[in-house]
Design brief:
MFS, membrane, globular, transmembrane helix, cell membrane, 445 residues, mainly alpha, 24 helices, 78% helix
Length: 445
């Protein structure tokens, strides 16, 4: 894999062979399962914020204001991501990718189970929303380092010419985690009465996390460390201050990578969090119907992530990104026109096209971000860029969308916001150097 961007430098390590096929498959599957569990934890919070947190933790507010407050706590977790990216990135570049992946999964599980055990506002007053914010911050810290480690483990173990393909495994954890979260909520909401769901049923998805985390930890402890990091350690080429070094040497790549992720994350959160609220509260579509629509869209998202990643091994990362980004620019207005019909078929069509754009602009990301930064500070560079893009784009997107809908009483305002963030990312991608030349020898350094 030849890079026309920053793939060489002091302490760089070339990896032209990847790991043994059996180990590559194990790492890929482990990355997918691990990130699915992490994102399940993250998304059950987003689902609960859309459906029940307004009544559980902000019960003194009106329904609309409570929803805004619940979505604000969703955004708080994203604010903690850059700090998580710095901390996990530093130690991931210093002591290894694998150890930090285990730590991130454990922290996410503790925070998620904590939400499931948290008393409501009616029980402990203002302490309830305060503790909710604290637990959400811990989720954000964990998520800030999770993606970078999982992505690098997959890409750095992968064989030449297939780093896009194997880099897609941690990416599919996002829609897979969302599907799992929605299915669990669907089962719980259909096996409890509305009163039972509001009283205790919503806690079940959070408490189930402890089982998933134990499974994830067992799986992650069985994989080998990244061969690239192992070479860095053996050659004594590790950076003493990776985040400082990446800021000094690759500021352009940090900025462009961060901006390139804004649209995908913002529009992704509109899909996974705001859509449920909009469908049930504004369009008055039954909750189960909206959950099914989101699940179908998530399946489309998953398929397009894999397809986009494989395509990027043939056409290049930037070309695939551009196709997905253009789709995210042109689709928001037709998206809401179809949703507003409340026709199930039309709504499904709307989310499928939207998630194809999301998948094509997310599938190649692991390989692209890994190829943009040298191995000695790759975890720090990739994690920080991903986290900053998430803060700028995704965390407050449901809150912004809800506020725009309430202020202007039209979905066109939300669509215009989606177009605006999509244009920002499209421009950033135009300035990113292609990192993968399919016809040339592979190189990851």
């Amino acid at each position: 894999m030849t890079s026309t961007g920053p793939t060489t430098g002091s302490g760089s390590v070339a990896d032209t062979t990847g790991s043994a096929p059996r180990q590559v498959r194990r790492v890929a599957i482990t990355s997918a399962i691990g990130t699915t569990i992490e994102w399940y934890d993250f998304f059950i919070y987003a689902t609960a914020a859309a459906l029940v947190f307004n009544s559980q933790f902000f019960s003194t507010m009106s329904a609309a204001s409570g929803t805004l407050a619940a979505f604000a706590t969703l955004g708080v977790g994203l604010v903690a991501r850059p700090l998580g990216g710095i901390v996990w990135g530093h130690f991931g570049d210093r002591i290894g990718r694998k150890k930090m992946l285990v730590a991130s999964l454990l922290l996410m599980g503790i925070a998620t189970v904590g939400v499931g055990l948290l008393p409501t506002y009616a029980q402990i007053g203002m302490a309830a929303p305060v503790l909710l914010v604290v637990l959400r911050l811990l989720q954000g810290l964990s998520a800030g380092g999770e993606w970078g480690g999982a992505a690098l483990m997959s890409v750095e173990h992968a064989p030449p010419g297939r780093r896009g393909r194997y880099g897609s495994f941690p990416q599919i954890g996002v829609p897979a985690g969302l599907i799992l979260a929605q299915l669990v909520f669907l089962v719980v909401s259909n096996t409890t009465s509305p009163e039972q769901f509001a009283a205790w049923g919503w806690r079940i998805p959070f408490l189930l996390s402890i089982v998933l985390v134990v499974v994830g930890l067992v799986i992650r402890l069985r994989v080998e460390e990244s061969p690239v990091f192992a070479m860095l350690r053996e050659s004594r080429s590790r950076s003493r201050a990776p985040i400082v070094e990446v800021f000094r040497n690759r500021p352009r790549e940090l900025v462009l990578a961060s901006l390139s992720f804004i649209a995908n994350n913002a529009i992704g959160y509109v899909f996974l969090a705001y859509l449920l609220s909009y469908g049930t509260q504004v369009l008055e579509v039954p909750r189960n119907t909206m959950i099914i629509v989101v699940i179908i869209g998530s399946l489309s998202w998953l398929a397009s992530i894999v397809g986009g990643a494989i395509w990027s091994d043939r056409a290049g990362r930037k070309a695939v990104y551009l196709v997905g980004s253009v789709l995210l620019v042109v689709w928001p207005f037709p998206f809401f026109l179809l949703l507003n019909t409340t026709s199930f078929v039309a709504m499904v069509g709307a989310v499928i096209v939207l998630t194809i754009g999301l998948g094509l602009s997310y599938g190649p990301q692991s390989a692209l971000f890994a190829e943009m930064f040298e191995a000695r500070y790759r975890y720090s560079g990739a994690s920080f860029s991903y986290a900053v893009g998430a803060v700028l784009g995704g965390g407050f997107a449901p809150l912004i969308a809800t506020a725009l809908q309430q202020a202007y009483r039209t979905s066109s305002a939300v669509a215009a916001y989606m177009v605006a963030v999509a244009v920002i990312s499209l421009v950033a991608i135009l300035f990113i150097r292609e990192t993968h030349r399919p016809e040339a020898p592979a190189r990851l350094s």
